[in-house]
Amino acid sequence: MQSDAAATETPEQLRVALDQAQRQIADMAAAHEAFLRAVSHDLRAPLRHVTSYGALARELLQELSQELPGQPPQLLEAMDFLATMEGSARRMALMIDGLQAIARAGRAPLRLQSLDLAGAVQQARAALGGAADGVQWQIAGAMPPVQADAELLTQLLTQLLANALKFSRGVAQPRIALHAEVAPAGRVHVTLQDNGVGFDGTRAQQLFGVFQRLHREADFDGVGAGLALCQAIAQRHGASISATAAPGAGCCIRLDWPGAAAPGCSG
């Protein structure tokens, strides 16, 4: 039986098998990143053609509308078609930007160090600029340090705060709370809670898929790449991210992150 054969393998054979498995995983990860880079790069050229020729087509239609008496229904319809095409092109550009951001986060050098989490949160808030005005912030002053890459952690926190801000804007008194605490096994648990529109909690895992959205584009902008980026960054750090929510009751994002005393991870 296979289990009997495995039991008779020597430590050296097991080490070789483990090395092979790790190389295969690394090769698969590299191939995945290369695919994302190629797709995001190669789609730029045809997208530029769509946006460039769309603008030229709009100019021609506007000139034609000035030459023709009245506004023929066909011309107005053509203008509507063109507006839809241009809007879709802008959305596709944002999707490509999202893919590129995920690819960069996956291959960027991971410079791990002990970081002041409270300071990283303040940097993320500052990156939001005036968009953060008018919100009641409840940010814990003291937080445990974490083991992280400074740039990637700030990118993740900025995305999470911006997301909470976006879905809280419609409520009368938007409120965003963030705190962190030391957890067992040298981990740090971070909780980000907003009082926004929330969503169906049974679909929470869909949030972290690429281009997954739980709200209509007409209600909230975005293409559904931000939380996928956050998950990619968390995974590189040996961390996890999850969400709970209910319609009209806001959303709670939880991070389980290595504490500063944890051994360094590589990526």
Automatic annotation (TrEMBL):
<dbReference type="InterPro" id="IPR003594">
    <property type="entry name" value="HATPase_dom"/>
</dbReference>
<dbReference type="Pfam" id="PF02518">
    <property type="entry name" value="HATPase_c"/>
</dbReference>
<keyword id="KW-0067">ATP-binding</keyword>
<dbReference type="InterPro" id="IPR036097">
    <property type="entry name" value="HisK_dim/P_sf"/>
</dbReference>
<dbReference type="InterPro" id="IPR036890">
    <property type="entry name" value="HATPase_C_sf"/>
</dbReference>
<dbReference type="InterPro" id="IPR004358">
    <property type="entry name" value="Sig_transdc_His_kin-like_C"/>
</dbReference>
<dbReference type="InterPro" id="IPR050351">
    <property type="entry name" value="BphY/WalK/GraS-like"/>
</dbReference>
<dbReference type="InterPro" id="IPR005467">
    <property type="entry name" value="His_kinase_dom"/>
</dbReference>
<feature type="domain" description="Histidine kinase">
    <location>
        <begin position="38"/>
        <end position="261"/>
    </location>
</feature>
<keyword id="KW-0808">Transferase</keyword>
<dbReference type="GO" id="GO:0005524">
    <property type="term" value="F:ATP binding"/>
</dbReference>
<protein>
    <recommendedName>
        <fullName>histidine kinase</fullName>
        <ecNumber>2.7.13.3</ecNumber>
    </recommendedName>
</protein>
<keyword id="KW-0418">Kinase</keyword>
<keyword id="KW-0547">Nucleotide-binding</keyword>
<dbReference type="InterPro" id="IPR003661">
    <property type="entry name" value="HisK_dim/P_dom"/>
</dbReference>
<keyword id="KW-0597">Phosphoprotein</keyword>
